[in-house]
Amino acid sequence: MSESAILCVDDEVIILDSLREQLKRKFGTRFTYEVAQSAEEAWEVIEELNDEEIDIIVIVSDWLMPGTKGDEFLINIHQRFPKLKTIMLTGQADETAIERAKQKANLHACLHKPWKEEELTKVITAAID
């Protein structure tokens, strides 16, 4: 098992499956790939990975999710893990939310749905280098 993980958060299972498949295709066994369907579930995954001493190096999060919006989630992530790279993946985020995430969550990038696999892997490669 890898000592580093990439966490993808989206309320749509098909999006999570696509992200995981594309990341595995690019990075192979270099990382563990975790998914969560909500910010609440993501915090549970984060705790489990911390307990297993696996470092999360990137979080890719949707913006429009039930409960907590992606920018709020990423701001909370940044407050607790300031070095962790965050990427917002969205089809519906407004510019205000993206700007707020840039300022308060140290947002590395914002990708718009539908994304291109090459764009996703390029952004993640840049985030981890």
Major sheet: 5 strands, parallel
Oligomer: single chain
CATH topology: Rossmann fold
Q: How large is the radius of gyration?
A: 13 Å
Cross-sheet strand order for the largest sheet: 2-1-3-4-5
> Which shape, going by the Cα principal axes?
globular
Share of helical residues: 40-55%
The total count of strands amounts to: 5
- On the 0 to 100 scale, the average pLDDT is 95
Total helical segments: 5
| CATH-derived architecture | 3-Layer(aba) Sandwich
- Please indicate the percent range of residues in DSSP E strands (runs of 2 or more): 15-25%
Total separate domains? 1
Question: What letter string, H or E per element, gives the SSE order?
Answer: EHEHEHEHEH
Straight-line N-to-C gap: 21 Å
What is the CATH class? Alpha Beta
Low-confidence segments, ≥5 residues, pLDDT <50? none
